[in-house]
Amino acid sequence: MPKPDGRLRPLGLAALEDKIVQRALSEVLNAIYEEDFLGFSYGFRPERSQHDVLDALAVGIERARVNWVLDADIAGFFDAVSHDWLIRFVEHRIGDRRVIHLIRKWLKAGVMEDAVETPSEAGTPQGAVISPLLANIYRPYVFDLWAHRWRRRHARGKVILVRYADDIVAGFEHKADAERFLADLHKRLAGFALALHPDKTRLIEFGRFAAANRERAGLGKPETFNFLGFTQAKLRALRQNSRGAGTKRSPTRGDGSKGSSSAGTTTMPSRPTAPPSAPSATA
To answer: For the chain, how are helix, strand and coil distributed in percent, rounded to 5?
Structure first.
């Protein structure tokens, strides 16, 4: 281990300093990006727990005419994040070149295995303090802003959205909307070298009217889906699951205030939402 000589530091001390800098920068950037994140996004955000997103999903399905649910998961997201795209997204919001330099350095840190460091060409830094924030910066450009515009421009019926990290649930009034959204989502993710997990992505008939509709059609009971470790079966069970930890917090609206479900309402940021060179939001 090299001794400190004004230029070199012990590896343990350097790692500790890196963590301190990452934590400090994460706090600063979190305060900036919280203004931009849409209301239906949860995960690694202050005062937004798993039970909050379950509650928002339940309220959204109860209040909207949801007949079809897309339960989707992005495969290997943390390992597949494009460094080039991530830097472009950060540069779109952050002008300080020192911050950009630090993020570039952390992204290229690589993975240490058997005392051999392999440079990383994709993915967020493994186990790094700043990794959840970098992932949160990436996802809104790839999914949130696109999905919000999609439902405004293309949906014929009601569409609700909730996302917790890589887990996405979208509810649709019409099956045709759900099928088109799924097809367009495949194309959207492919533009960023991402894909939906084939075994964790399903489109099912679900909602207040699913049981009656399936009974009239001579079909069985509505299917279930898993979200954040809970099996979502009937709406009553969905509501009970969302309150499983005894949370008393009301669901939030898309503008961040308390009230109706954020699954159904969002507020678009006033500033531009994607770099000019990013793939079009119209899939």
So the answer is: 40, 15, 45
**Cα–Cα dist 23/151, whole Å:** 36
Q: Which residue has the tokens 């799924």?
A: 182
Task: Say if residues 25 and 102 touch (Cβ distance below 8 Å).
Answer: yes
**Token duo for residue 113:** 């295995």
User: Which tokens go with 158?
Assistant: 């009601």
**How does pLDDT run across 227-237, given as a tens digit for each residue?**
887 666 554 54
CA distance 203 to 182: 9
Joined tokens for residue 193: 């070298």
pLDDT in tens, 121-167: 788 887 889 999 999 999 999 999 999 999 999 999 999 999 999 99
Residue 227's DSSP bridge partners are 230
Q: In b/e form, how buried is each residue of 176-188, taking b as 16+ CB within 10 angstroms?
A: ebbebbbebbeeb
pTM here is 0.75
Using one digit for the tens of pLDDT, what is the confidence trace for 36-95? 999 999 988 888 888 899 889 988 888 888 999 999 999 999 999 999 999 999 999 999
Q: Evaluate whether 124 touches 80 at the Cβ level (below 8 Å).
A: no
What distance in Å separates the CA atoms of residue 13 and residue 38, rounded to the nearest whole number? 38
